[in-house]
Amino acid sequence: MSVVVRSTRGWVLDARSLIDEGYSRCLRLRDNQKSHVKCRFKSQCFQISKSHYSMSASVAVDEGSTDMLQKTDKASKKRKRKHSELNQGEIDSQAFHEKIRSVVLEGTKSLVDSARSLGHLNGVTDAVKEPLPSQECSLAALCEMAKELPLVDEDEQEECVQLLVAEDGCTSHVDLFSRVTENGEDWATVVTLMGEEYVIPPHTAFLLSDFTRMQPLVHYGRRFDLIVMDPPWENKSVKRSRRYSSLPSSQLKQLPIPMLASPNCLVVTWVTNRPSHLRFVRDELYPHWGVDVVAEWLWVKVTTSGQFVFPLDSHHKKPYEVLVLGRCRSTADNATSSSGTSEAPVEDQRLIVSVPSALHSQKPSLSEVLKPHVGAEAKCLELFARSLQPGWTSWGNEVLQFQHTSYFTLTPADDGAEVPQGDAAIKPTATAALSSPAQSSPPRRCPTTVDE
User: Fold this and answer.
1) Does residue 81 surpass a pLDDT of 80?
2) How far apart are alpha carbons 303 and 271 in whole angstroms?
């Protein structure tokens, strides 16, 4: 089950199941041979079994609310004595935390209790003891090198789109850096790109490029009903670790959201717990794009036994992150999305509870929790993506990072399924012919399966 619990407080998600849903049918193309394989994201990536703090200062969600409050308050008072002089950013952060603290504490307890009653978040982990995948990602460096390549002229917009696999089964011709690449098939495909194997979900499209080379995405000819982004926010830990290059907040205003969004588009932005970033999104970024803030949600990170991964009142790291949801302003004549459906109103202060990935900056998929607010037929886009989702279009300079086969367990399928032969295995359907952006592959759809 990908959606374990759904209530008025929010959801409990099984992040790994959300990923695996897109790979129930998978075809591997290797050495001119085709074979069916079983494909699952590696389980050790979602086995966070211990909280990052001592039990003496813990705030375990399985305890009663009163005990949780007392323990947290005592630990908080001790820390306050050590941190009597706070800077303005810390003061703002503390004020925000106090505002949403009870929502996080009480809502998480309710959702975790519900999940446990169904046999989830009980501390059970797989027996797999393998180390985490450690594939070095060089995609950002390749994007930097690709800046030397010429851009596709505006009068040749049809060349901004290409098929992942050609009719002859070849992928060596694929230009990942200046064209949107589509897998219009009903199955996931394991292909070799740039000398490495990647797993590409069905009905997905992606562009591998940096911030300065987004033109092919604009020329793609799509207007999206949902745009989700996880910007590389500037902060000290990123600079120290050098895990990825950050982007100044002011440059985010240059994202062509008005050219990508459909009327009434829902825009969702992941924000760090730094108050200045939150204010920037609310007060500058969204107004600049003509987007009205409608809600703020919280992703609460818990262990496999339902404890917060960090102390709730920690001054260093919080066990939650913020999502700011906004709607593109639309006229009365444009009150519905391009999917042709009216959406449910977005409620404020909802919680998304899940065990986080041990891989840096891998966020849970929001496709299921956002579906009621955009419609099942919505066209969905992720910006600054590090992975792909079935039915979505994705852009980023590391858009294939978590699609590398080192993050998956691939085993031969034993279901007796017949391997497609000849052109049928790789030839696009008639509706996927790339004669023009307006007549390309079938509409991208958010996944429509909900496991309750």
Assistant:
1) no
2) 21
**Strand order of the sheet with strand 33-41?**
196-200, 188-193, 26-30, 33-41, 408-412
Kindly give, in sequence order, each residue whose CB lies less than 8 Å from that of residue 7, ignoring residues fewer than 6 positions away: 110, 111, 114
Other beta carbons less than 10 A from residue 447's beta carbon: 21
C-alpha to C-alpha distance for 164 and 179, rounded to whole angstroms: 11
List phi, psi (to 5°) of 206: -155, 155
If you average pLDDT over residues 170-189, what whole number do you get?
Answer: 86
Rounded Cα distance, 159 and 144, in Å: 21
Question: Rounded CA gap, 33 and 38, in Å?
Answer: 16
CA atoms within 13 A on the CB side of 172: 5
Residue 205: how many CA atoms within 13 Å on its side-chain side? 29
Q: Are 53 and 393 in contact (CB under 8 A)?
A: no
**CA end-to-end span of the chain:** 7
Average pLDDT, the chain: 80
Distances (CA, A) of 360 to 118, 134, 320, 355: 29, 11, 15, 13
